[in-house]
Amino acid sequence: MTIAAPFLLLNRTLLPVDEAGITPADRGFLLGDGLFETMRVSNGEVPLLDRHYQRLRHGCALLRLPPPALEDMRHDCHTLLEACTLHEGSIRFTLSRGPGPRGLTPPQTPQPTQLLTASPPPRTTLAPVRVRISTHRRDALSPLCQVKSLSVLPAILARLEAQEQGADDALMLNHHGSVTEASAATFLAHDGTQLITPPLHDGVLPGISRARLLEAGHCNERSLTNDALATLPAAWLVTALSLTPIIAIDDHPLPVWENETERLRQFLYGLS
């Protein structure tokens, strides 16, 4: 079980966790009106902060939110990690539109709420997972597929559905039947020849680890149909924090490719 760090930053103010609070009128709480980024902490630093910031800026432009300054984020991450004496783990930046009047229409001049929280790494290595094809679909035409929105109810429902069926996570298709991603992770697979991951235009979040694998030539983009899943020899779930082997997709068992798993973990996180 991962236990949260004792301090957080709320609107750039360092506070003990049990002293923090937001207004009941906050649109992030009421409407899911906001964004977040979860970032890996290594050696007391956030090594991929710039990449996460660029995705956050894109999301802010889509939601018409004023973005924070990169140097402010960098300073705040350092402040929180130092206060929590955290050297390894993760840090999450949450940005909501802040308080607003009743209803959907945002305030003309938003006063965003910023929340920065930190967590140590899990005490044990994540076990391989079983996934189920979800009945919930991702809308490949929605621009929200491209950002880390606070509105993640479809993913929550997909995860719950999978767990009710005895699996650990859900694999979501788009409305054309192409594979997109898991409820909160990039889908990475081996087709017997190369590593592949679904393309962004199928409704996939532009994951940070996903981009790094593509840039380094470790995998290629290719659309995958539901039927193709039964022919895959290996697959993984990938996030900014972890790479987890998949041991079954519905009733199709998969072996754990330990050497490939170690190679990918070493590239992404400096871990085997």
Automatic annotation (TrEMBL):
Does Transferase show up as a keyword for this record? yes
Q: Which Pfam families match?
A: Aminotran_4 (PF01063)
Under the heading InterPro entries, the entry gives: Aminotrans_IV, Aminotransferase-like, BCAT-like_C, BCAT-like_N, Class-IV_PLP-Dep_Aminotrnsfr
Q: Where is this region: Disordered?
A: 95-124
Q: Which keywords describe this protein according to UniProt?
A: Aminotransferase, Transferase
One example GO MF annotation: transaminase activity
Q: Where is the composition biased (Low complexity)?
A: 95-118
Matching entries from Gene3D superfamilies are given as: 3.30.470.10, D-amino Acid Aminotransferase, subunit A, domain 2
Task: Specify the signal sequence span.
Answer: none
Q: Which family does it belong to?
A: Belongs to the class-IV pyridoxal-phosphate-dependent aminotransferase family.
Identify this protein by name.
Probable branched-chain-amino-acid aminotransferase
Protein species of origin: Saccharibacter floricola DSM 15669
